[in-house]
Amino acid sequence: xxxxxxxxxxxxxxxxxxxxxxxxxxxxxxxxxxxxxxxxxxxxxxxxxxxxxxxxxxxxxxxxxxxxxxxxxxxxxxxxxxxxxxxxxxxxxxxxxxxxxxxxxxxxxxxxxxxxxxxxxxxxxxxxxxxxxxxxxxxxxxxxxxxxxxxxxxxxxxxxxxxxxxxxxxxxxxxxxxxxxxxxxxxxxxxxxxxxxxxxxxxxxxxxxxxxxxxxxxxxxxxxxxxxxxxxxxxxxxxxxxxxxxxxxxxxxxxxxxxxxxxxxxxxxxxxxxxxxxxxxxxxxxxxxxxxxxxxxxxxxxxxxxxxxxxxxxxxxxxxxxxxxxxxxxxxxxxxxxxxxxxxxxxxxxxxxxxxxxxxxxxxxxxxxxxxxxx
Length: 375
What we know:
By secondary structure, the protein is of the alpha/beta class. It contains 13 helices and 17 strands. It comes from Salinisphaera japonica YTM-1.
């Protein structure tokens, strides 16, 4: 179905665990197949989960189309390891526990859970310093065959995974947004917003909305959102934006000068994944401004680095995943401190995953697209 299905309070799954399940398997770019595969068996420390709902991320779309940042090229190695089951935005129920998993992860059968997207090795330089989100091995659910994702009816949380519980009363269409929201909170934290700042967030997609919401809670002097899709304005305002501008309709450079005495914005957060938004931000920032890059791009982005150094002396910060932000994201969703109702606009059965990917990519009258593996 092409709209969001109505759900009552989430119920724990019942019945026997089947021997096989349906799953979407990625082989090469463009070659994704709905197959009948074995339900995995949890080993020591592992958790078998029944997938309740899984969201589609734009990175899933870029993997589908063969983006070099995932599949590699002459300048970078391949990151994905097919054949694999995609899907890293999920909410699940625990249905089986490997030896010691219940004690190690503080979970029991029937618990509603998520696992952070990254599966750290816990043995590299970064993991040993508490910087687990930059783990050198860097396995992510849904991108490698040893950590298959949630485009399936069941999935394994590995013994290295970081597991969090999600309240049963949170609707599935909101619970599935915890992972992207956790990433957004980290990006907003990186921006280091103060009440004196004029902030511009480029992109009011699902990830951009989380950034807008967290920045709004920091009470900036002004929070401007840029997006070229008119239907996203209501979501941006719902999250706390002061104004939403469409770069296709107004001169955003002049407008930002008009409200900053000609200087430019203090902070610019890029969350569109489009090349033009990077150069746009570099030019909109004032001297000594701060640029936060959050997107994953399908191809290399070029810009005039002399603007960063010689002309403006800008601070350029990256943002990756959602380290240490999942408890906050779960609380924000559960209490609706950030109201995520309506953000999931489309839910599809797994048999129509190709259509779901297309709707997510086009973004016309859609925000977050999800797949219900059991529908």
